[in-house]
Amino acid sequence: MSLTLTLTGTGGAQGVPAWGCECAACARARRSPQYRRQPCSGVVKFNDAITLIDAGRHDLTDRWSPGSFQQFLLTHYHMDHVQGLFPLRWGVGDVIPVYGPPDEQGCDESV
Predict the structure, then answer these.
(1) Cα distance between residue 1 and residue 76, in whole Å
(2) Under the GO molecular function aspect, what terms does this record hold (predicted)?
(3) Do 42 and 56 contact (CB within 8 A), yes or no?
(4) In this structure, are residues 66 and 28 in contact, taking their beta carbons and an 8 Å threshold?
């Protein structure tokens, strides 16, 4: 039995470096890519099952092949936690279950 958690995004909606920001953290991230931070996202691997926790990253379709995920778990519906799912919504293939808290407005309240 194997369980791993990988944090794939630990930044806010703007990411780091933030567009137009010249603070020390953003300047360092521009100089050194290891200091860049993507919007919120994590991956849990339990044996052969992969769960995506939040989908803030814009590059899910580049980082993962179709069929990689067994489910998605959303902590809440702010855009920086769900925006990576939009390209997948119109994809072809098996339906992937999405779990999250009850919220009738979903990400509509964020717009």
Answers:
(1) 29
(2) lyase activity
(3) no
(4) no
Surface-to-core class of residue 9, CB atoms within 10 Å of its CB (0-12 exposed, 13-18 middle, 19+ buried): buried
Q: Look up the pTM and report it.
A: 0.84
In this structure, the strands spanning 41-46 and 3-9 are antiparallel
CATH T-level topology, domain 3-13+39-110: Metallo-beta-lactamase; Chain A (3.60.15)
Asked if 55 contacts 80 with a C-beta cutoff of 8 angstroms, the reply is no
